[in-house]
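PROTEIN DATA CARD
Card holder: PIN domain-containing protein
Chain length: 105
Origin: hydrocarbon metagenome
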Amino acid sequence: MIAETIERGYALSPQDAVKKLKDTPPLIKELSVAWTVYDSLQAMGFDMIEDETGISRLTYHFSREYDLMAKDAAIVAYAHKNKITDIITNDRDFQRVPWLTCWNP
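Structure generated from the sequence above:
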């Protein structure tokens, strides 16, 4: 996501790209490389080695659904899989997940 954000001219550095994506979450839906790579690997028959089955699919789903960067989407995927509905965080991005209650320390 970060490389594609730079390649498309939205940012000049990885730090700028992260800031741009966090400041403009709908931009995540416009990106395509991560989704294409993920879909292509499965189409070619590659198996995803996961510590929990289905986490990578959920991660990509939540990234697209709620305009989350991959790391945040992975946290949401694990929360969903483990029926966690409350988290403690200062990251406002999680507030876009309607079933997740965010507590600010």
